[in-house]
Amino acid sequence: MIYAGIPEENILIRPDLKEAVLEAKRIGLAANIMATYTCLSPIVTIVSKEAKKVSQLISSMISGK
């Protein structure tokens, strides 16, 4: 990432996958999660669950329930 010209202060390293996803969600900015091949399946699961929660929240807000 540094070699790609991304300033070091803009790079956050989180060893816990769920913590990384939740922090990116909390910040509310676009985030790139760089994971090893081994971590891809767990990351997809975590992100999918979080996306479903957001979708349900938006649906409930629209329907007024």
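^ that was protein a. below is b, sequence first then the tokens
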Amino acid sequence: MVMAGAALAGTAYSIYSGERAADAQSSAQNQAKAQADKQATAADQAQNRANQKKPDTSAILSAAGQAGKAGESGTMLTGPAGVGANTLNLGKNTLLGA
């Protein structure tokens, strides 16, 4: 009977010890995952800092220069001379339209 009790106590301790080991392993895995996530985030941030997007200033200046060649009032529809006053006249002479 003493042997059965000792065997039962040994089995109970083995189960308890196994559960504690499983809990410790699970905790260690969670910590490792959290650390890996932190390192991945830091690596992404470092990559983004190294490869920052910069504006293409030469293209912007070139586009502005080309737009300046069209004149002050130039658009694709009117050109640099603008719209002629006679083309806007609808055939009526009013104070508002003349």
